[in-house]
Amino acid sequence: MPGVLGTVYAQEVPDNAKKLYEDALDKIISDPEKAKVSLEAAIKAFPQYFNALAVLGKTLVVTGKYQEGYPYLLKALDVNAKCSDCLYSLAIAFYKMDELPAANKAISEASKQQPQVSAIHLLYGIILRLQKDLPNAEKQLLLAKTLAKTPNPEIHYQLSFVYNRQGRNDEAANELEAYLKHSEDLSKEEKESTKKLIERLRKK
């Protein structure tokens, strides 16, 4: 997943707004609430401040404040439409808010801007699966798998859903086996229930 700091955008910014933004970056790990206040003040001082809008929007999404975060991301994209990590975070926010058409639009654009990022194609595949577009969900998830630098259990897990919905149960079982193999933090109960599901899929 792209981090909170990502796209670089050159912009003439008033000194007072820049100072508030830099102060926020110093505190973003140690004191996120103070960082948020500084970012809001920077945006108030300069409403078109792309970096402050993007960082605040992404930070809010990362911390699960989707409803609060997405308007900042929309404003950041109004200033700089080529911010793929803003689009990715926006897609997450809309996905978590169950606004799937809006999530699809954001992640589709992110995938065009950054076609080599596995995490973007994974999220795109999840959104398409939830919209019941299984052929395109499979396409995006397989692309995510190809682009992943290390095995990602979530990709295998999502592919198992897609194959199961299509009645391709052997392939679904194969993906669940890969999910088990590459997952490091599953509980004993989760492992056992996944193994039982694999057995049921093999018998169908």
Annotation keywords:
204 residues, 11 helices, mainly alpha, Serine Threonine Protein Phosphatase 5, Tetratricopeptide repeat, 0% strand
General description of the model:
The chain is mostly helical. It folds into two domains: 1-99, Serine Threonine Protein Phosphatase 5, Tetratricopeptide repeat (Alpha Horseshoe); 115-204, Serine Threonine Protein Phosphatase 5, Tetratricopeptide repeat (Alpha Horseshoe). Helix content is 74%, strand content 0%. It is built from eleven helices and no strands.
Fold blueprint:
Layout: H1 15-27, H2 32-45, H3 50-62, H4 66-79, H5 84-96, H6 100-113, H7 118-130, H8 134-147, H9 153-165, H10 169-182, H11 188-203
Proper CATH architecture of the largest domain: Alpha Horseshoe
The chain-level structural class is: mainly alpha
Strand-residue fraction? under 5%
Beta strands, count: 0
CATH topology term of the largest domain:
Serine Threonine Protein Phosphatase 5, Tetratricopeptide repeat
The rounded distance between the terminal residues' Cα atoms is 36 Å
Task: Report the order of strands and helices.
Answer: HHHHHHHHHHH
Please state the overall shape, judged from the principal axes of the Cα atoms.
elongated
- The share of residues in helices is over 70%
**The CATH H-level homologous superfamily of the largest domain:** Tetratricopeptide repeat domain
The number of helical segments is 11
